[in-house]
Amino acid sequence: MSHSILDTIGNTPLVLSKVVNQNPNVKLFFKLEGNNPGGSVKDRAALNMIQGGLERGDFNTDSKLIEATSGNTGIALAMIAGIYGLDIELVMPENSTKERVQTMRAYGAKVTLTPAEVGIEGARDYAEQKVKDEGFVMFNQFSNNDNWKAHYKSTGPEIWRDTQGSITHFVSSMGTTGTIMGTSTYLKEMNKDVQIVGVQPADEAKIPGIRKWPKEYLPKIFNPNKVDQVLEVSELEAREMAKRLAQEEGIFAGMSSGGAAAAAVKLAQNLDKGVIVSIICDRGDRYLSSDLFDI
């Protein structure tokens, strides 16, 4: 029995692909991070960043907290900050889906929208300016070691346990890169031959949650040595796979999950045998006001 909503973060299901993977010699599993209480994989990192910061005394209930987000991290921080009585402002581009904005506000966070044309980089610049000028404390998920360590402590061990150590390939979209960094670190400790596959958008592709960062914005927690292979996916591939996951596998997820799944399916087609785990990072209901699921 769970005594707190926080106890329900993690231990998400691992389900076997029945349709989109057509290679009978490869098992493709999807890890359903949308089953976290805040609806995404970011619950793990947000919990670890808040608990770690409080334990170190980086901030307290009198602090003014701020974070730039494309959505999922903000929702997770808003949910958990409220439980701890923390005051938080979340900054995101104005073209973010209204479900994300409304969910953050429902949890009690202040939401500031920055111009769409400057993207998440502009939101990050705004937050950093508030830190300099007004004494805000920023989590900075892009350079916060508590981000990747959350996945070292939970996501990696869960995957190893639930595949009985048989995993051969791990596939994850790369945004802040926390998920892939932490999970890679753990899995490589257990078996150095596990292949870590990162997913990035192809040039000009716009896939929320997956980025090919300009050098000056590259997450400081990212270590390229922990990724064995990078696969690129187009926006069309990500969109089409998100729809296929919903219609053929019963997995309702967003575009970045579609991108990761598309890369995992392509990977499976080229293997003689293997056990692949691909992260499904959130739920599709976060995208209903977008055109992602339009017929």
From TrEMBL:
Pyridoxal 5'-phosphate binds at residues 72, 175-179, 256. The modification N6-(pyridoxal phosphate)lysine is found at residue 42. Keywords: Amino-acid biosynthesis, Cysteine biosynthesis, Pyridoxal phosphate, Transferase. It is an enzyme of class 2 (transferase). Pathway: Amino-acid biosynthesis; L-cysteine biosynthesis; L-cysteine from L-serine: step 2/2. One of its GO terms (molecular function) is cysteine synthase activity. It catalyses: O-acetyl-L-serine + hydrogen sulfide = L-cysteine + acetate. Residues 6-282 form the Tryptophan synthase beta chain-like PALP domain. PROSITE patterns: CYS_SYNTHASE. Its EC number is 2.5.1.47. GO terms for biological process: cysteine biosynthetic process from serine. Its cofactor is pyridoxal 5'-phosphate. It comes from the Bacteria. Belongs to the cysteine synthase/cystathionine beta-synthase family. NCBIfam families: cysKM (TIGR01136), cysM (TIGR01138), PRK11761.1 (NF008735). This is Cysteine synthase. It comes from Arenibacter aquaticus.
